[in-house]
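This section describes the prediction task in plain terms. A model, or a person checking by hand, is given the sequence of a single protein chain and must write out its three-dimensional structure as a string of tokens. No templates, partner chains or ligands are provided. The sample shown here is typical of the held-out split.
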Amino acid sequence: MHSVYFTSGADNHAVLVTRVADTQWHAVEDDLVVGRGHASRRPDGRLFISIDAWHDAVFDRVAEVMLTDLPTPLYAVVDEADQDSTSAWERAGFTVARREWGYFVPTDPAVTGLGTVRPPAGVTIVPAGEAEQGPLRALDRFIRYEVEAAVGWQTMPAEVLPRPAGSTLVDPSKYAVARHMEQYVGLVRVAPLIRQPRIGLIAVRADRHRRGIARALLAHALGSLHRSGTASAWAEVNECNAAATALFEGVGARRTGSTLELVRR
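The expected answer:
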């Protein structure tokens, strides 16, 4: 395992950075852990790292060891408002790969204006938990294929849930779908988190775009949350996704911050 000694602070105490497990690194000073690093591989195959350190010098040395031990490209995520963290990653050679806007989304139809929205002719909305798993999984795979062939799945909001190898859909009960005739053509995923539900994905087959299906799915999801007593939901949107930005801002969603995805190649 790769280790690095250095001195930190006014007392010039020795700090030892060591890889203590396949995905974990510790910085130790006088038998006290003063920094930690962690690596995790996302379902899309990308390797993300995180570092928690007491001082800039400790952060820099933990990053140095991790970068020596791990293959590139490496990715990290940081709140854009946290300038200190952003600067620390930039010192380690990371640059901005993309920005993701965070939105608080109201659920009240009187605010969103979605109370009168109905699916287009021939389309029905199958509520969460009622979709057939086979067609739902097939739609999920098809949409992922379309996104990957166009802009790349890495441009979608980050997904960190573990899933069995080869599976792209963990919990079918979180998905409502749009059905045209006997075919599933769109889906929305809502994660019922304790503090605030998260709209993790809204997607429609490319050959059914611009028909109002995504808006109908959003109306259904937000309406269901409102009826259950939830005042708002959370959503993340890639800054380059003009259609999704227009969809959420068009229903009164409020932008509250941004997350940067960083990369070192």
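For orientation: Residues 133-150 form the longest helix (18 residues).
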